[in-house]
Design brief:
By secondary structure, this protein is an alpha/beta fold. Helices cover 42% and strands 17% of the residues.
Length: 338
C-alpha cells in the first residue's frame, strides 16, 4: 500500500497526534532514500553511507533529514523515503494500523551503565527549587507533538512519581530547546549529546535520567513501508545488513573503545559531517562523545519495550485500541529480545 503525503497525513488525523543479514541485491546500486535526524544516535546510517556498507549491499542511499519523528512516519507511508530510524509515535502506530508501515528492527536503547536520555529543567525552574522529577507536579513539559516519544517518556515519569504534567507540543526539537532555555516550558527529556551541552551552558539543568524510569527502553526503531517489508525482502535485508555494519563500527569505536583515542577521533570526524555541522570540530566533538549510547547489534528489537509503548498509546486514547503488535511489527527480519 503506497500513500501520497496528503493521504498519509489524513490517516494520522485520527491520532492526536544486521551484519551479513543477506547477500547484496542482484540489481546493484538500487536507489533508496533513508530518513534520519541529525542526532548522534543515527550514526549507523551515517557510517554505512560514508564507509560504503550500503553500496556493498547493492544500495545507492540518499539520506533525507527530518526534525521530528512523526513527519518521518508520514514520509515512509507516502513513499517519499524508503527506510528510517526514529522513535515510536502515535502517528507511526496509526499508519501501521492502516497497513502503511512496519517496524522491522531496533536502533537506540537505554542500557544500564551508559548515560542515556536526561531529564532537563529550565534555569528558572531549577532556581525555584525543582531539582528532581518528583517536584515537577503541575509543571509544563515540552514535546514535539502530542503522541510523540517525548510525550510517552514524560507520562512514564509522571506516573512513577505520582504527579501531573502539562504537555506543550512545539513541533520541532529546536523549538523545544528554545522554549526550555527561555523558561517558556519547565522540563523536557533528550539524548545526552544535546542534554549535556545544554546543561554545561548553565541555561538548563539535568535533574534525572530516563533509564531510572524506563529501564531497557527501546528509544528508536528501524521501520519501512508495509509494502517494502512484504514485497521487497532482499532490499530490506540488504538495508539492514549495511546499517548493522555501521552500528557495529559505532559501538566498537565509541562504546568499546577498541580503536583507542584514535578510533574515537576518527568516528567523531565522520559523525561531524552530519551532526553539529554548524559548529567547528573542536566544539562539536565533546557533544558527539557525550551522546554515545549503544545501538542494538544487528538491529535486534526489544519487543517487550515496544509492547509497553503500544499499550500506553492505546490506554491514552492516542491510537485505536484495536491495534496489535502484529499490526505494528514485522518480527521476521531481526532477533527480538526482552
Amino acid at each position: 500500500m503506497t500513500l501520497n503525503r496528503r493521504k498519509a497525513l489524513a490517516l494520522m488525523g485520527g491520532t492526536v497526534a544486521a551484519s551479513a543479514l543477506a547477500a547484496p541485491a542482484i540489481a546493484a546500486n538500487r536507489k533508496i532514500k533513508v530518513g534520519a535526524l541529525r542526532f548522534t544516535s543515527h550514526s549507523g546510517s551515517f557510517i554505512a553511507v560514508e564507509r560504503g556498507y550500503f553500496a556493498e549491499a547493492g544500495l545507492d542511499v540518499e539520506l533525507t533529514f527530518f526534525q521530528a519523528a512523526q513527519p518521518m512516519a508520514v514520509a515512509i507511508a507516502s513513499g517519499d523515503i524508503d527506510y528510517a530510524v526514529t522513535a515510536i509515535s502515535g502517528g507511526l502506530i496509526s499508519l501501521a494500523q492502516k497497513g502503511a508501515i512496519k517496524v522491522i528492527g531496533g536502533a537506540l536503547a537505554e542500557e544500564e551503565g551508559i548515560d542515556g536520555q536526561q531529564i532537563l529543567v529550565s534555569d528558572a525552574a531549577f532556581q525555584a527549587g525543582i531539582d528532581h522529577p518528583s517536584k515537577l507536579n503541575g509543571k509544563s513539559y515540552g514535546v514535539t507533538q502530542t503522541g510523540s516519544s517525548f510525550h510517552y517518556v514524560g507520562s512514564q515519569i509522571a506516573k512513577a512519581e505520582g504527579i501531573e504534567l502539562s504537555f506543550k507540543p512545539l513541533q520541532k526539537v529546536g523549538a523545544v530547546i528554545g522554549a526550555l532555555k527561555s523558561g517558556q516550558i519547565d522540563a523536557w527529556n533528550i539524548v545526552p549529546h544535546i542534554a549535556k551541552p545544554l546543561a554545561g551552558s548553565g541555561a538548563v539543568h539535568i535533574i534525572g535520567a530516563v533509564q531510572d524510569y524506563i529501564p531497557n527502553y527501546q528509544v528508536t526503531t528501524v521501520f519501512t513501508s508495509a509494502k517494502n517489508a512484504a514485497d521487497e525482502r532482499a532490499t530490506t535485508e540488504n538495508f539492514l545488513a549495511g546499517f548493522s555494519r555501521g552500528v557495529d563500527d559505532y559501538n566498537s569505536a565509541m562504546i568499546d573503545k577498541s580503536g583507542g583515542e584514535a578510533g574515537v577521533n576518527e568516528m567523531v570526524d565522520l559523525i561531524h559531517k552530519y551532526v553539529y555541522t554548524d559548529r567547528p570540530r573542536e566544539k562539536a566533538a565533546p557533544s558527539i562523545i557525550n551522546g554515545t549510547m549503544r545501538l542494538n547489534k544487528n538491529a535486534a528489537l526489544n519487543i517487550t519495550s515496544v509492547k509497553d509503548q503500544l499499550d500506553w498509546f492505546k490506554a491514552e486514547g492516542l491510537v485505536d485500541g484495536s491495534v496489535t503488535m502484529e499490526t505494528l511489527v514485522d518480527p521476521s527480519y531481526v532477533e527480538t529480545i526482552g
